[in-house]
Amino acid sequence: MLRLDDVTKEFRIGAFGGKTVAAVRSVSFDVVPGEVVSLIGESGSGKSTIGRMILGLNSVTSGAITFDGRPVRGAKEYYRHVQGIFQDPFSSFNPVFKADRVFAMIKQSYYPAVPEQEWAERVRSALRDVRLNPDQVLGKYPHQLSGGQLQRLLIARALLLDIKLLVADEITSMLDASTRIDVLNLLAELKTRGLGVLYITHDLSLGNYLAERTVVLRKGGVVEMGLTDKVFGDPLHPYTRELLSAVPRLHEEWGDAAAVDTCLYHERGAAEGLLEAEPGHFVACAQLESC
Ligand SMILES: Nc1ncnc2c1ncn2[C@@H]1O[C@H](COP(=O)(O)OP(=O)(O)OP(=O)(O)O)[C@@H](O)[C@H]1O
Predict the structure, then answer these.
(1) Which residue positions does the secretion signal occupy (predicted)?
(2) What is the ipTM, given to two decimal places?
(3) Which of 23, 40, 146, 200 is the most exposed place for a label (fewest CB within 10 A)?
């Protein structure tokens, strides 16, 4: 369904854009229907940039992102199948309009011919799907709803489209613990209906909770990826091990603690790219600076 092949993103920085920073470096992975893939890494590791490229909000410097075999284009038809939800649900709503205006905009863009009565029933049904009581949320302004209710409204909006892939970027980080679990359970339920989810998080425990596969990013590059059980149960890269043992420090800047002098996988081919150390479990060379 979604494929990233050798994707790199460089941003121009500096007063005249004369310098570049590589936010994402040669990243390849895929997401298939009915699967949650979690993208984890510390702050600044490139997670959101990957999400934004998939959503067509940032261009790709080199490599390719394809959806159902076709290059990603930020076009209306693409957004029928691929939607993004972000950390701060309040920023997705215009405070001067009632929150359900997001549904009116979907109707206007994608279903102008659907009669009002039928549309209203579809909206109510989508709201019930995300466990919201339509009578309690329709007609309200964003400030009259909680963060959890607004995140669910956004998921309901996505469900009204023919959505196949949801890019969920830190969507639970502003929610309290019990609402967070509710939203995660909702995503788990949606994946059983065939939805693919790219779950971007710096919270390892949440990624572990939901995802079949996990991709670990460091400084824009994948250092390890594979089945979540393998990555969490038998982490091969020192950086992954450091992440797993240092959860409270995840918001720190990039560190060099993971760089090591010798790497078990260097001679086995990891120096040339990700090495499949065991079936479905890939690791990068840990001598990062020298590889
Ligand atoms: N528009 C931009 N211009 C220049 N640099 C950028 C831009 N967007 C992101 N970056 C840089 O790219 C790197 C990756 O940023 P990104 O937001 O993707 O990281 P992240 O892993 O999502 O971090 P966080 O968890 O804090 O959101 C960072 O060094 C960031 O400063």
Answers:
(1) none
(2) 0.96
(3) 146
